[in-house]
Structure formats: structure tokens, C-alpha cells
Amino acid sequence: MLATIASAALQGVEAEMVHVEVNAGEAGEPKLILVGLPDAAVKESDDRVFSALSNSGFKPPRTRTTINLAPGHLRKEGPFYDLPIALGILAATQQLRAENLGSWMIAGELSLSGATRPVRGALAMARLARKLGKRGLLLPAVSAEEAAHVEGIAVYRVDSLDRAARFLTGEITLAPLDPAPLRRTRPVPADGAPDFSEIKGQHALRRAVEVAVAGGHNILMLGPPGAGKSMVAKRIPSIMPVPVLEEQLEIVSIHSAAGTTISGEMAWGVRPFRAPHHTISDVGLLGGGTIPGPGEISLAHHGVLFLDELPEFKRSALEVLRQPIEDGEVTISRSAGKVTLPCAFMLAAAMNPCPCGYLGDAKHECRCSPTQIQRYRSRISGPLLDRIDIHIEAPALSLAELRATENGEPSTAIRARVEAARARQHARFAHSRTTSNARMTQPQIRRHCAVDAALGDLLQHAMEQLNLSARAYDRILKVARTIADLAGAEQIEAPHLLEAIQYRSLDRAVFY
Predict the structure, then answer these.
(1) 87-96, 318-327, 418-427, 461-470 — which is least confidently predicted?
(2) What is the mean pLDDT of residues 462-483?
(3) Which of 168, 266, 310, 395 can pair with 98 through a Cys bridge, CB separation 3.0 to 4.6 Å?
(4) What is the CATH architecture assignment of 196-432?
(5) How far apart are CA 379 and CA 214, in angstroms?
(6) Please, which residues bridge with residue 155 across strands?
(7) What's an example of a GO molecular-function annotation for this chain (predicted)?
């Protein structure tokens, strides 16, 4: 007898339909045959399924049984299909008599006892089930709670194979999980959570970070060891605005596909902060794998990607960032297929001025030769540096600043100004896909960043003196627009433009 159950396969951060077809009672040697381009984890499902069936009070098939995961050209990976395969076997062997079995979408890993375990990509499956008009979605507990964030589809939590089978036959009733719209307010920070009030001195750096967050601009912090660059970067999430509902769903979808929501690494209502080590590979940073999946830049979508000790990263890893920084998405092609992943992140980078870290420090003597300094700086290419909107120096702190007992301005005060600036941007770009000043298109720059003749001459003079590129010209205007938003000004004025220009001063003074 043939039984068909609907499931799904992850392709990047999206889900595609997979039909689990089970045909039992075939003539021949009693065995289970699994086809449909499965990987090793899928091939091992027969052992888990047989034990789960036995320990749940069901009888494993005693005839030749063929299981096909269709479509055959789509590679299947992971333990997604344990539960649908088990239910398909029960239906094919007439141990499960359920009407309209194909109207449900089902996924889940099975333990040997028959209990269910969560799987990746539940949110993408819920979106697919809603799109296809399925009756409902059956998932393990953690995955079901994640999928319930998608409205318009009934999501049922099944804790075991036995409960899933009894629910489908009507022996028991389960209530669908209530739609769980994401919290629109910031979670209460835990005691000891990083806060800007802990930062001593560094007023110029704090101001530059505030401007960067307000407009979603990339920022490079340059200074000696112990200046507080990493400390400031780790506090950037505390001043970022709460993601709007659409942004949060995109964040959750990516982290769900990567499996981080299962492990509880991602907090709701907080933008992601990713800080990969400088030994990371190109694939780990960009994304990829046999079946292309999200890398660090996609996991930082709508959040922060912090690259500490920037010159220590491999040159190839840094160069792959150039196109994603510009476009906000990355396309990965592999033999298993091609996927486009979102990666609209804010890049925050930190570096020392030289290999020993003390070039220009009045209290420490630099031990580096000019050749060593030039080789160190040349690890960051001009095109990559050109895509970083704000360059800011972080000088070493004085002893008086270190001994200061008064707290700095807290994150709540800075975040209030940032949110006010972001609100102006959302109103400005209400009828477009642009979300921040840093993502403005050329027509939007001409419309919202217009300057009068005097300011135009000022900018031209700065461009000639610093020998900046056309890309830097646009980025100065974007940063000036953000500074004007923080000041509540309708038009860009001279102080706003001058501050934006000074954030490009490191282009020539430090790197060339």
C-alpha cells in the first residue's frame, strides 16, 4: 500500500516541498530502501524509525518497503524526515487510518524511544505550509513554538510519534499553538549586561558609534591595545533600536535555518551581534557548504558584524565582504544549487595602527619598521576601506580618565536619540525598501542629501585634499544626513557636513 506525507527541505533560508512516499508490501527480501538523494543523516533514519516504532507500540514493516523523497533532484539532509517516514510506514502498513493525510506538513527527528526532537528551519516550513494552503503543521515542541510566530497557519506541537499518530486518527485532540507575534519591546537587560555607562573617556569614539548606529553605517575603530575598541563594539547592541516585526521575522528565519534558535543562542527582540574569530574561513564568513547555508554575514542580518583585529583576517575572507556590504545580500552557487541570502548588516571593525600597536602613542615606543607597518596596513585593501563610512581614532586613555569614578552616559539615553533618528528615516523611506540612511540609493541621495553651492564647494575641496573616490563622496553625504537626523535638522548644514568629512580623514593619513 502507498502512503504520501508532505514535508520540506531547507534551501538556504527558504523551504521547498518534499513528498515522503512510502510503499509497503512489495515482493522480495524484507528490507527498507531509501531513495531520493538523501545524505548520511537521512539514510540513518531507518534505524531510528524502526526503534521508535517498536518502542511506541507499533510494528515495523516485515516486507520490502521503498521510501522515496521526492523530488529526486533536491538533495535532502538532516533528520527532518524521521517523523513523516514513521507516519508514512504506519499508513502504508494500515496501522494508521487517517483522512487527508497529505493535507498536513510534518517534520521532526525521532529518538529511539519515539520522542520527537526539534529540527532547523521551522519558521521557513511554516511560511511554506501557509503558502501551499496546508491544513496545519506538525512539529516537535521547540520547533512548533518557533513556527507559531508565522500567522495564518495552524501549528501543532507533537511530543512523540504515538501522540502524532493518535492525533491524526482523531483519538486525541490537540489545540494549535496561539499565534505568537514577536515582542515589539526590548527585553529587560540582565544584571551586568554591557552598557555604555561603563565606558570611560573616548567621547569622540562614543559619538562616532552613535552616528554609525543611527544611520546603519559601517565603522572602523583604530587605536592602541587597551583603548576600549572591543569594549565599545560589544555595547553597540545596547543602543540599537528594537527590530520592527518584518525585520525580526527575517532575523528569526535565518537563525532558524542555521539552527541557533534551537540552542537558544538568539534572544527575541534583540538584534544579532556576531564576532567571528580572525581564523574564520571564507565559507564560514560568507556562507556555503554542500547545501548552501548562512554564514556569519547572514547571521548578522539587521544587526552587527564585529571584526576585531581586522588586519589579522585572511585577505581572501575580507575581500569577499566587498559585494555583500554594498548589496545587502549574497548569492552562493554550489553543485547542489544556488541560493541568495540576505546580509544587510552593520560592519564594526577594530584594528591597531601597527603590528606592535603603539604607533603614535606618546607613552609607548613603536618597535615596528616602516616596512612592517606598510605590510600590516596593506592587508586591508582600498576598495574595502572605501566601503566603511566612518573611520575614527581611539587614543589610549590617560590615568585620570581610568581613575574617574563617575559613570558615562548610559545606553538608554543614547538609544533614545538613535531611535528618534531612525524614526525620521522610516518616515522618509516609508514608500521604499530602504531601511536606513546607509542603504540609500542614488536617486534617494540626490533627493534627501542635497546641499547648497557653498557646502558643495566645501565638499569638493575636501575630496580633492583627501583624494577620495566617488563612493566616498556618497558616503560622506549619507553620514551627514544621519548627523542632521540626530540634530533634528531638515537640511544638511555646515556642521553636519564637516563632522562627516572628518570621519574620512584616515583614508590617506593612516593607510597610504
Answers:
(1) 461-470
(2) 89
(3) 168
(4) 3-Layer(aba) Sandwich (3.40)
(5) 29
(6) 137
(7) ATP binding
